[in-house]
Amino acid sequence: MANIEVRNPERDIHRLRIRLGVAWVIVLVCFGILGARFFYLQVVRYPDFHAQAEDNRIALVPVPPRRGLIYDRNGVLLADNVPDYTLEISPRRVADVERTIDDLAQILEVTAFDRRRFKRLLAEARNQDSVPIRTRLSDEELARFAAMRYRFPGVEIRARLFRTYPMGETAAHVIGYIGRISVDDKRRLEESERLSEYAGSTHMGKIGVEASYERQLHGRAGFEEIEVSAGGRTVRSLSHTPPVAGANLILSLDIRLQQLAEEWFGDRRGALVAIEPRTGDVIAMVSKPVFDPNLFVDGIDVATWQALNEDPDNPLLNRPLRGTYPPGSTYKPFMALAALTTGARTPEFTISDPGYFLLGNHRFRDSRPSGHGTVNLHKSIVVSSDTYYYKLAYEMGVDAIHDFMAPWGFGQLTGIDLEHEATGILPSSQWKLKRYKKKWHPGETPSVGIGQGYNAFTILQLAHATATLANDGVVMRPHVVRSIEDPVSRERNLTVRAPSRSIGLSPEHLALVRSAMVEVNRVGTGRIAFRGAEYVAAGKTGTSQVIGIRQGERYDARRIAERHRDHSLFMAFAPAEAPRLALAIIVENGGFGAQAAAPIARKVFDYYLLGKLPGDPPGAATSAASAAATGAKPGAAAAQPEGENEQDLRDVPERIGPEPISPTEVNRQ
Fold this sequence. Notes:
Blueprint: H1 9-44, H2 46-55, E1 58-63, E2 70-71, E3 77-89, H3 97-104, H4 112-124, E4 131-134, H5 139-147, E5 155-164, H6 172-175, E6 177-180, H7 183-191, E7 203-207, H8 208-212, H9 214-218, E8 222-228, E9 234-241, E10 248-251, H10 255-265, E11 270-275, E12 282-288, H11 294-297, H12 302-310, H13 319-322, H14 332-342, E13 350-353, E14 356-359, E15 362-365, E16 373-376, H15 377-382, H16 386-396, H17 398-405, H18 429-436, H19 445-449, H20 459-470, E17 474-475, E18 481-485, E19 492-494, E20 501-502, H21 507-522, E21 538-544, E22 567-574, E23 581-587, H22 597-610, H23 624-629, H24 646-649, E24 659-660, H25 663-668
Parallel strand pairs: 2-10
Antiparallel strand pairs: 1-8, 2-3, 3-4, 3-5, 6-7, 8-9, 10-18, 11-12, 11-23, 13-16, 14-15, 15-24, 17-20, 18-19, 21-22, 22-23
């Protein structure tokens, strides 16, 4: 009979209980492990994970706008944006910045200048996410860093737009440059409640039209909503509000003429402003010497900055805008208009010019010691009679002269669309009392009449007044930006549409003065420079004395230090019957007006009106440019035109101001 196993219920229950107990122990151990893990993650590691969670969030990143471009009147690009790469460090994500820079220097070139700039920008960029340590990386440098990128958390390669000026030094004072936003810039932006407009931007205009049209050029920032990882890298873009590009500027400059005019100055210091009388467009605005604006975009190095600042020729000075000079005899056409308008002189009135003007026991010299004989108003301009204008100024008085000249823009801001324009000095009795706490003496007035004395104007003011004279007294505000172009629609809006005002002048008086200015370039002091011209130009030479000559001595440029020689000035417009261009020019220490300034003016007119590049007129005095071409030493006294008497071309007396003479001489004269 087969064995039959009988189940033992108690034993089975016991085994089941053991199994259940083991299972419960295992479950409890597992839950214990999970609980311990939860405790570790939620309590022990809470600060770390909380920080990472905070970093791994949605960020609103500003997107800087593309800066507007700058063109000349003919469409030549003058200021561009070029894409390039920078290497930037995020200080908040780097434990040891100095060590990181040292490590970067092992694979990339990091100069002492790069380090100094980084420290300066780091101190200024309090709220900036990253600071550049290197700019304009080459392809080879990009590849080297990309291969080692894992070693540098918090260091990123970023694509940036860099401002560049393709024409280099040409028109640098007009175009200006941009530079990094400084602490002072931020303070000004905060005060004007515009700081938010510069979110993400690192640069802004510093001088020139880059500064004066900063609002138009800058554009409006956009924003991108992104998700970033705990390591600071972008995970994905959630939304994007594109920036609005800045407007483009169309300058009134003819950049080719500007470039040529700068070349024609050679190594000489000076300024030139050429204006279209009918519109106020500034066609050329030369300041010599010049500088390269590209040096300032990334931050100029100390040595170059020091060299520019300590240069005795002062290349950073915008001479047409800020340099002030006595206008010399270029003032005489305006004095003639003042005489006719106020009734102080009639066209027929004449004086006898003996070569001097006596006032009490003082004598004012004429540029021609033997005098000009009988002189009327027309002849006074043609031969540049100082005696005529000494007498005229003394009889009119300084306040009457001031009141007539102020509407022409002398000693006033012209309103040009560039910042930091100098006012200059248009003297009056009230001005002297306010400045020197002294009364005006009648003996100070004669020198004012020949553009000397306290007179000090910018070349821009002289060019502006000349353009107004050429435009029959209709004043157009001078401007270097002709129009502003919308970057999307390409619609252009003119910056100046209508005249500012009109000076009430008699057509007969205007015709008389303008005809005399034509004779200046035909038979007068400007005849050499404009000999053989294919158009009729009206002009006036001028000379501004730098140092006085003692009584009894003669002016000899060869015996005078270069920086003590006279300044050469010239103002003109052409064609005389329908002026298309008016200009004023000064060549510092260039001699008398016909010697250096007038030949350059002739070249400007030839190019602008005829489209040709003339050589020096036959027999003309050697200008700075021709001196360089012939090997003459820069700054040397200009050569005297063959067969010409210097005294006929000089338009300034050898001594400015009165010289005392004895009572015996007074009675004799």
